[in-house]
Amino acid sequence: MSNDSDTLRTLPERDFRARAGLVAGVFCLICLGLAVRLLFLQVVGGGWYAQRALGQQLRDTVVPADRGRITSADGLLLAANSSCWTLRASPREMPEDRLTLAAKGLSDLLALDEKKLLEKFSRRSNDCLLRYRVDRQTADAVRDFCESNGITGIRIQQDSKRWYPQGEFLASVLGFTNVDNAGVSGLELKYDDLLTGENGVVLTAVNAWGYTLEQSYETEIPPTEGDGLRLTIDTNIQHYLENALGYAVKEHHVAARAVGIVMDVNTGGIVAMASYPNYDPGDFSTIYTEGLQAELDAALAEIQQNRSTYETEE
What DSSP line would sit under 224-274, residue for residue? Predict the structure, then answer.
């Protein structure tokens, strides 16, 4: 009887120890998995998560860099930069009871559609563009309107745009830049990498909803201006060549374009280069030829008429 009693006591004890060992093994595996995951998050993926956290805590505002200047051989400034201002809005930071007033006032100041602007503000997003590169007078008018009406959430950021102080002079050689200040023609395109500077950035602390913190800080990385170009062009000879081309075209009734080049035979340097008719690189979208402008206007009117007819039929 004693042997049978010992057997009955031993079987439950063995079963309990087996189960305890199994639970302990599973627990150890779970702890090991958590340790491996923690190691991965802290060591392998730590940098990625840190950058993501900074991206949620900081708002970065790009500070555009000036393009390098272009001058003639005798020092005449041919291409430079002028200050302008880009206007953006953060509808989430705008008082809800002043959205209609803001849309009305800003649409008048910036020549925007009031209804579409109110729709933008009603979405309550963190950022939307109002107008790109306006002059100081417009920027000051927007600032005064917002201050006098208690409208917050409007950001006025200083920017720069390309400026050609000599107007049409040497335009066919200089070329021009687009709205993003990138070269698209002439020397501006050929040496775009050289002339383009390195943008700066301003980092501003924000909360989880993207609002600027009242007691925040800003870190600024200043922009670096692009390298400049000094041409072999002699301004006196260039003026003479452009005037001579204009006179020759009118005198001989040239139907197409006229081109002239003057080279220094000793060095091979180009001291003058011009084509006629010319244009203003600061306003390259304007057509100076009256006949061509009339043809373009007629074509646009025909397109608009055809579109209206099509919509009516639909």
Answer: BPPPPEE-S--HHHHHHHHHHHHHHHHHTT-SS-EEEEEE-TTT--EEEEE
Which of these ranges, 18-22, 78-82, 220-224, 290-294, has the smallest mean pLDDT? 290-294
Q: Give the contacts of 107 (CB within 8 A, at least 6 positions apart).
A: 113, 114, 117
Single pTM value for the model? 0.65
- Helices and strands in the chain, H and E counts: 10, 10
**100 Cβ contact partners less than 8 Å away, ≥ 6 residues apart:** 118
For 55, 85, 114, 143, 312, the CA distances from 88, given in Å and listed in that order, are 20, 10, 16, 12, 38
- One-letter amino acid at 265 equals V
Question: CA 38 to CA 29: how far, in whole Å?
Answer: 14
